[in-house]
Amino acid sequence: MSRAVDSPRVVNIADLRLMAERRLPRAVFDYIDGGADAEFTLRENCRVFEDVILRPRNAVAIPQCDLHVTVLGKRLDLPFLLAPVGSSRMFYPRGEEAAARAAGAAGTAYILSTLSGCRLEDVKAASRGPVWYQLYLVGGRDVASATIARARTAGYSALAVTIDTAVSGLRERDVRNGTKELLGSSITSKLPFLRQFLMRPRWLAGFLRDGGLMSFPNVMLPGRGPMPYADVAAALEQSTVSWADLRWIREAWKGPIVIKGVLTGDDARRAVDEGAEAIVVSNHGGRQLDGVSATLRALPEVVGAVNGRIEVLLDGGIRRGSDIVKALCLGARAVLCGRAYAYGLGAGGEAGVTRAIQILRADLVRTLRLLGCSSVAELDRSYVEAPVAWLIDAPSRASVSGR
Ligand SMILES: Cc1cc2nc3c(=O)[nH]c(=O)nc-3n(C[C@H](O)[C@H](O)[C@H](O)COP(=O)(O)O)c2cc1C
To answer: 23-56 b/e with 16+ CB inside 10 Å = b?
Structure first.
C-alpha cells in the first residue's frame, strides 16, 4: 500500500483526500469531509490561512531544521499531534491503532477519541509515542470515571476534555446520507447502503474482515456492554460537560488536563482558572456551531488572554506545513491535525497516515528553510503579517516564546 500513496501519485493532503473519496463509500467519506450546517466555518478554517502572509529572511543558510517542541513536558519530534477523530475504525480496519502506530513511529502523539472502535489499551500498546485520551461524558459520570481509570492504568499521558459538543452539530451531508442508519446496530439498517458498499469492494472486504458491526469499547454501559454506534447523538446530548465537571474529572484523572474547544479569551481564562494545563483553540473542525470564527483568527485573542500561563494549541484547517508555521508564529505551541491524517487513513490505512505526516514534515522543513529560520522554537510574529484587527490584545513576544 505504501507505494500507492507515494509521490507523484500523492503530492499533498488534497491528493490523499481524493484517494479517500475513491476508496470509501460516500457516507463514510462525507462523515470525514463534511461540516455543520452551511459549512461556512469548515471552509473558513482553511481559507483564513491565506490572510496571513509569510515574511522570509533570505540569503540565510539553513543546513538543518529543528522541528521539535515540548508539549506538557514531553518532547515531540514534530510540532503537530494527531487529533481525536471518532469512528476511525470505519475508515480502515483497526483504524485507531493504525493511526496511533504511525504517530508514534514519527515521534509525535496520538489523541484517542472516546467514540473509537478500538480498545484504549490496544491503541496505547500500538504506539511508541505519547497517547492522550479525549473525553466525552457519554454514558454518564460513572461510565466516564471507569474509562478514565482504564486510561490512567494503560499509561495515557493527558486527558483532553472536549467542551464544544453540548449537542451534536447538524451535519447535513450525514442526514442526507443516512449515516445514523449506516452506523446502526442492525444488519437490516445497512441494506440501503448495499449499492455504495459494493461499489467500494476493497473497503467492504476490510470492513467485514474487521467485524462489520461496531460499537464503542471504551464506553462500557453497566449491564449492557459497549455502547452501540447508533446511540451517539442522544448520548452526547445527555452528557454535556460543564466547568463544574472539571473538578471531579481532575480528581479521577490526576494527570494533565487539556480543554479542547476554546474560541474566546473569556473561555481561555476560565480554563486557566479551572486548572487546565493546556487548551486547544478549536471549533471541532467546523462540525459543531457553524458561523463561529476560524480558529487561526481566534488564536491571537486566546494567546493574549492566556498570557503564557498555560500551553495553547490549535486545530482546524491544517492542510500544509506552512499552515502549521503560521499558527506557531501567532503563538500556538503546537497544532492538532484532524482531516489531514483521517484522509490518509481512509486512503490507505497506516501507510496513508504515515504519508500525511511525511508530507507535513517535508513542508515544514522546506518552509522553515525558505523563511530563513532554523527551528520552530524561533518562529514568532516577525515572520508573518496578519490582519491588524486580529492583533488587538496581542501578547508580547515573551509570552509566546519558550517552546
Ligand atoms: C471525522 C471526524 C471525527 C471527529 N471526532 C471527534 C471526536 O470524537 N472528539 C473530538 O474531540 N473531536 C473530534 N473531531 C474534531 C477533531 O478532533 C479536530 O478538532 C478537527 O478535525 C480539526 O479540524 P481539521 O479536520 O480541519 O484538522 C472529529 C473530526 C473529524 C473530521
So the answer is: bbbbbbbbbbbbbbbebebbebbbebbeebeeee
Protein residue closest via CA to atom 20 of ligand 1: 285
Considering only CA atoms, which residue is closest to atom 4 of ligand 1?
Answer: 85
pLDDT tens track for 372-403: 999 999 999 999 999 999 986 554 444 444 45
Q: Is 284 a catalytic residue?
A: yes
pLDDT over 70 at 121, yes or no: yes
> Domains in the chain and their CATH numbers?
2-400 (3.20.20.70)
**Is-above-0.85 flag for pTM?**
yes
Mutate which of 17, 39, 85 for ligand 1 pocket (most atoms within 8 A of beta carbon): 85
Look at residue 59 in the predicted model and tell me its pLDDT: 97
Cα–Cα distance for residue pair 108/153, rounded to 1 Å: 21
Find out whether the beta carbon of 45 lies less than 6 Å from any atom of ligand 1: yes
C-alpha cell at 246: 472539571
